[in-house]
Amino acid sequence: MKNNLHVFLGATVADAAARPLHWVYNQKKLLTYIKGKKDFTFLKKNKSPFYNIKTGKVSGYNEVGQVMFKTLAEGHENIEERFKKNITKNFGPGSVYWKNFNLRAKYRKVKDWRGIIKGPWIHQNIIETVKNIKAKKKLTGGAKVNESDGYCAALPYFLYGYNLNSLKKIISTVTVSKISLKYALAKFRLIDLALKGSKDPINEFVKKFKKNLYFKSVVEDIKKVKRLKAKPHSIVVKKLGMACSYPGTFNSSIHSIINSTSYKSAILRTIKAGGCNCSRVNFIGAYFSALKGVDSIPKSWIKKTDLAQRILNQR
Q: For the chain, which terminal residue's Cβ has fewer other Cβ atoms within 10 angstroms, N or C?
């Protein structure tokens, strides 16, 4: 596919596949939802306790990548400024995302309001970004959380061949967290190694950056995860991090990758572990698509993903 967009397709399909089980933190409860199913992707009935969208649609993580993809499809001049405009249009006042954000404030006094939100869920980084764009701040990215939105936003941009320095600017549009920036850049290095034909990008990354001060903590994290390789994935995820934040979301992703031989097995393993599976599969799906090619993505899953055809049309 043009501009390695099969990698973005891999992230999008994985997100849509995991989405009905997004943010289920009770692993025992999750097992009752998938009991007897070999393939528990694209569950017809939403099981996310926080929000409810139609099966086949993507979470807010992948959605910000779709906004960048749309921005690039429209042209390559003034990408940053147009991306900010499109973020505001897609997520800001007047959008269903913003409407649901206001509803959350309304329901905050209710003892357990989770599940009341019908429609998509806006993330903290994007809330801050919209407000900072409106306030005309020079740095628009969110600062309160260390999450994956910056990586997701920059993925299509990276695949169009932009260099790593300009990549930092795009990530910072959505998050200015130093931890988020570091782990996003590590993800892109790993995907880049996979696209360039590395048979084992994880080990190659460790060798390449073992003396690099910037990636020191990332290399140490990968080594720690490798020591836990033999332990069951769900148990390791509970230990390393089920939630959306770095470094947990990165470390749990690495554990799934080193224990999987295919795109499909990695995504199923990740969904089964629960928590913020969507943030993890946006990286894992991209990684395996880069490593094994477009044919590694199950065709039946592609058909079930609403936005897949828009990416495939860019061939």
A: C
Alpha-carbon gap, residue 299 to 315, rounded angstroms: 16
Assess whether the previous peptide bond of 298 is cis (omega < 30° from 0).
no
197-206 pLDDT per residue, tens: 999 999 999 9
CB 20 within 8 A of CB 51: no
The residue type found at 49 is P
Q: Which residue(s) pair with 52 in the sheet?
A: 118, 119
Which position has the higher pLDDT, 314 or 15? 15
Average pLDDT value for the chain: 96
Residue 235 has pLDDT above 80, yes or no: yes
Contacts of 129 (CB under 8 A, 6+ apart): 87, 91, 140, 141, 142, 173, 174, 175
**Structural contact between residues 53 and 91, judged by C-beta atoms closer than 8 angstroms:** no
State whether residue 6 is helix, strand or coil. Answer: helix
pLDDT tens readout for residues 72-114 = 999 999 999 999 999 999 999 999 999 999 999 888 888 888 8
Question: Distance (Å, rounded) from C-alpha 74 to C-alpha 132?
Answer: 24
CA nearest to 88, candidates 69, 74, 67: 67
Contacts of 13 (CB under 8 A, 6+ apart): 285, 297, 298, 301, 302, 305, 308
The average pLDDT across 39-59 equals 97
